[in-house]
Protein: MSP domain-containing protein
Amino acid sequence: MPPLTLLSINPEETLAFTKTPQSNTPSKILTLTNDSQVNVAFKVKTTAPKAYVVKPSYGTLRPRENQEVQIILQPQGQGADVSVSTHRFLVQAVPAPSSEEVPREQWSNFATEIIQSTKLNVQVDQREGDVSEAKTNENFRSTANLNVAENNVITAATTDTGAADAVRDNKKEFDDLYVRLTSFEQENKVLVIEKQKLLAENEKLKINSSSGGAGASAAGFSVVHLLLVAVIAAGVTFALNNLV
Structure:
């Protein structure tokens, strides 16, 4: 088979997979680019088909078009009895009559002389440092959760303090209102007593008014005085009703 010139690939020689404690199925992206002026059909094959998932494994690229091929290493391809270093990938390319995909079964119709190809090796690295990194991330998440819990406690305490302040303010307003109400009640009692005294005095003046004009004049003055007291008493009663 002639060397691959229709396509450029990245990486060019080795597919390097990196295993981490967080993932036992590492993956690698193989980028194919059509460098020619014609449509190019491609196919990606491996010597260990059960050990890898290749998506897509075949297709057709228009001129200057590229395609990312995802290659996933499966757990069954990583056992102690498996030598990954012996695995190989084969990328094949051939000019296509159109931009339509060329089915796998039609590749057998192409002459071997026109199918270009290149091989890639496989390498698997183990990243031990990710264990400590994972622990660091876990500690960071634990610290973040602790900070959130502390903030919730502070918020709850602040809310309780605000509620207590509101209760104290309401109690103070109630106490002030009670003092004012008590004062009005006492003033009202005094006015009632004064009213009773004036009524009694007025009765006496009515009796004495029959004896002369001076008595009538005195009676007139007492009635005015009585009316003023009655108006004041009514005002106090109205204020008490509004407070209640």
Helices lie at 129-209, 213-243. The longest strand covers residues 116-126. The beta strands are 7-10, 14-19, 27-34, 40-46, 52-55, 58-61, 66-73, 88-95, 116-126. Residues 214-220 have pLDDT under 50 and may be disordered.
